[in-house]
Fold this protein.
Amino acid sequence: MAATYRIDFDYQLRSVAGDYFSLALVAAAGPLSTRDYRIELEAIPLDGHRAFIHRTYAYAFGMGGRLAMHSYLVTLGRDKLGFTITGQSPQGEPKYVRGPRVIERNTMRYCLAIDAYLAAMDAAPADRFEKRLRLWYDNTEDYAPHLREMDRDEYLALKRAERARQRDLR
């Protein structure tokens, strides 16, 4: 997890009408020959305490990205589990998707990130970043076999260092 890659997204507010809003984050290029990134978010209120959020994301990758993903999935990522159940073991335990489809893990990460972001809004502005980190990590622990990459202290240190690095780049 030492390497991270920056992707510069353009923010596009698509629609704000009454109780509905839609936005998109788009980037023409990303790391390892990935391209055409699009993250879209739509939301409408359901009642006074809940909202329906629809999120989509997509990207394309070329030969470099395909080779990098394949290399990762046969080495460091070979034990990664997705969420889709593909069968049962002889003991009756669920078998989960592996290989390129483990990308579905990112969907859960994004959902948990949105939850953490919104749940941290009640904190003082200076405390929100830390609260979001802690909430996100704690929520991923509900799906530890699928999402755990490192222990909590290592994760928090990595994210704090990444934020400091981003501030230094400004």
Observations:
- The first strand starts at residue 10 and ends at 17.
